[in-house]
Amino acid sequence: MNDTIHPTQVGIYVRVSTEDQDTELQERELVAEAKKRGWVHFVYKDQGISGAKFNRPMLNTLLTHIREGRIQVVLAWKLDRIGRSTQHLAEIINILLERNCGLVVPSQGIDTSAGSINPASKLQLNVLAAVAEFERDLIRERTKAGMKVAKDRGVHCGRPSVVRGEKREFAKALLAQHPEMGIRELARHLGINPGTALRLKNKLLPSTSES
């Protein structure tokens, strides 16, 4: 029977938004934290990548390694280094929960390195995910309320039409003479894509629809 205890594999994630910034401070403190706990650490660094970016190569790699079970704890400088939004953060936390992966953010007092084995750690991750989801829902509700107010005032909130001026008048005249004209044919006449042609036809001839 093999009783060898394997050290915890930790993924240190660091990110800076611009090329002229560096991750040295983040790395130094997080590596020191990992060494203090006797963790084997691997650094995942996204340099010059905004937190709003959907595609962050090293974060994607880290998440892949978490799913594969190669990383048991994520060590980060701050939560905003990880998630691009509250929704994104909630998605990442859910991945951690599914894979029993801990999250440690020393500067913000977050430590779930015990993973789901410790009920308090699992609760802390769930609370973080719930807060992120709650904030996302608040943003969505505020957006809907703002759009309703704008609509009540007569302000158009939808996607603006890309067909204007003479081209729109030409389309109007064309459809008046040939209301049965298909979407693809209309798009070809106007030099626009079929999706735009469909929206335009529905606006100019609201009583018709393409089957």
Brief summary:
The chain is of the alpha/beta class and 211 residues long. Helix content is 51%, strand content 11%. The chain folds into 2 domains: 9-137, Rossmann fold, CATH 3.40.50.1390; 147-211.
Your description of this structure?
- By secondary structure, the chain is an alpha/beta fold.
- The chain folds into 2 domains: 9-137, Rossmann fold (3-Layer(aba) Sandwich), CATH 3.40.50.1390; 147-211.
- The protein contains 8 helices and 5 strands; from the N terminus they run βαβαβααββαααα.
- The chain has helices spanning 24-36, 57-67, 79-82, 86-98, 119-152, 165-177, 183-190, 194-204, and strands at 9-15, 40-46, 73-76, 102-105, 110-111.
- Strands 2-1-3-4-5 form a 5-stranded mixed β-sheet, sandwiched between helices.
- α1 links the parallel β1 and β2.
- α4 (86-98) packs antiparallel against α5 and α7 (183-190) crosses α8.
- The radius of gyration is 26 Å and the shape is elongated.
- The model has no long low-confidence stretch (mean pLDDT 79).
**CATH-level-4 superfamily name of the largest domain:** Resolvase, N-terminal catalytic domain
CATH architecture of the largest domain: 3-Layer(aba) Sandwich
**Oligomeric form of this entry?**
single chain
Distance between the amino and carboxyl termini:
68 Å
Shape descriptor: elongated
Radius of gyration: 26 Å
Mean pLDDT score, rounded? 79
Number of beta-strand segments: 5
List the uncertain runs.
Answer: none
What structural class do helix, strand and pairing data support?
alpha/beta
Number of domains: 2
Order of helices and strands: EHEHEHHEEHHHH
Q: What proportion of the residues form beta strands (DSSP E)?
A: 5-15%
Could you tell me the CATH topology label of the largest domain: Rossmann fold
Reading off the top of the CATH hierarchy, the class of the largest domain is best stated as Alpha Beta
Number of helices: 8
- Residues in helix, %: 40-55%
Order of strands across the biggest sheet? 2-1-3-4-5
| Major β-sheet annotation | 5 strands, mixed
